[in-house]
Design a protein that fits this description.
Blueprint (H helix, E strand, L loop, with lengths): L1 H7 L7 E5 L3 H7 L2 E7 L2 E2 L1 E5 L5 H18 L5 E3 L7 E5 L3 H5 L12 E6 L2 E6 L50 H5 L18 H14 L1 H4 L8 H9 L13 H4 L3 H10 L13 H19 L7 H12 L1
This protein binds heme C.
């Protein structure tokens, strides 16, 4: 904000004059010289670059132009070329015009800079890397705070602000304990009914997610013997807690809300999967776990009467 205001300051319209003295000895002899950059709000000088300037020089020219505009309201033209334009010139970076003044930028140390005043010209030269190319002078170069940085603008000294208490991100209103927590509304009891419609689509989704996220440990059939368990058992390091059998009676007896809660927060040695699996997918997985339990624990009596004969025939074939 503070920085922003600085940019918005109204430019004065008066003339901008650089007063220079050329060499200590010369100044006593010739007195101070004046270079007018802006007169009556109009540009009175040209910023001069080589025809193929380095990026650093081009950027410096744009910065110079920008700051002179902030100070005076006038935009000095930037000319590129091998010949020096008429009138007062601000010579930025290596160029034939700079060399014509006897300046040899390569004789400067790396990152050493030179500001030299000549009659009708100021040379601003550094020893640049030979890096030329496109300069994008736009929002890449705005004022901004770096993430996590300190600043004294706010009383707490942080540049980053925390959300106002009670802020809910768009699309993230977690209203509804059964769906988001697996619990009865306003209560800690786990729900026993699905808070979503269980249909074929949900079941397919649940199968897919289960096979990605749960099967490595619990196995494709849910019996607890996934590849991770097989490997850990073979290593026999003595530290492995086997994944629970999801089709066994203890998990069959769990309310659906409890299984949902296990995926969300993990349980004992099992980690939480809330960051990988969103609430709807967690319910899809719970539905699929129920389907696995049903398929593993079904008896002939669970099969519709019309289909039983076919199954019995299978058994005797
Ligand atoms: C990294 C291995 C691993 C993965 C992946 C994993 N689990 Fe587990 N899970 C375990 C272990 C280990 C236990 C037993 C923890 C214990 O007893 O300390 C367990 C226990 C459980 C239990 C029994 C909890 C109870 O009520 O006692 C359920 C249900 C369960 N997991 C469901 C899932 C589901 C659903 C997924 C997929 C979203 C999943 N697990 C993914 C390792 C895993």
């Amino acid at each position: 904000m503070r920085l922003h205001n600085r940019l918005k300051r109204k430019p004065p319209t008066a003339a901008l004059v650089l007063t220079t003295s050329i060499g200590l000895a010369a100044s006593t002899a010739t007195g101070a010289r004046q270079l007018s950059l802006v007169t009556n709000g109009e540009p009175a000088a040209t910023i001069v670059l080589a025809s193929h300037p380095t990026r650093v020089a081009e950027f410096a020219a744009l910065e110079l132009q920008h700051h002179l505009r902030l100070i005076t309201g006038a935009t000095l033209p930037i000319a590129k070329g091998d010949t020096r334009p008429e009138g007062t010139c601000l010579l930025v970076g290596d160029s034939p015009a700079v060399r014509a003044l006897g300046i040899k930028p390569e004789q400067l140390l790396f990152e050493q800079y030179l500001v030299r005043f000549h009659p009708g010209a100021v040379a601003l030269v550094g020893h640049d890397c030979p890096d030329s190319g496109e300069v994008v002078y736009d929002m890449d170069n705005q004022y901004y705070y770096k993430a996590q940085s300190a600043d004294d603008f706010f009383a707490d000294g942080r540049s980053m602000r925390t959300p106002v208490d009670g802020t809910v991100a768009r699309g993230d209103l977690r209203a509804g304990d059964p769906f988001f927590r697996g619990r009865v509304e306003g209560d800690t009891t786990f729900v026993t009914e699905f808070p979503v419609t269980v249909d074929q689509d949900l079941m397919h989704r649940g199968q897919e997610r289960f096979q990605i996220f749960c099967a490595p440990c619990h196995g494709l059939s849910g019996n607890g013997n996934g590849v991770v368990n097989i490997r850990a058992t073979a290593l026999a390091e003595g530290t492995w807690t086997p994944p629970s059998d999801l089709v066994g009676q203890s998990v069959v007896d769990r309310p659906v809300g409890h299984i949902y809660n296990t995926i969300t927060h993990g349980i004992r040695n099992m980690p939480s999967y809330k960051n990988q699996i969103d609430p709807r997918d967690r319910w899809a997985i719970v539905a699929y776990v129920r389907a696995l339990q049903l398929s593993r624990n079904a008896s002939l009596a669970d099969v519709p009467a019309d289909d039983r004969a076919a199954l019995e025939n299978l058994g005797t074939r």
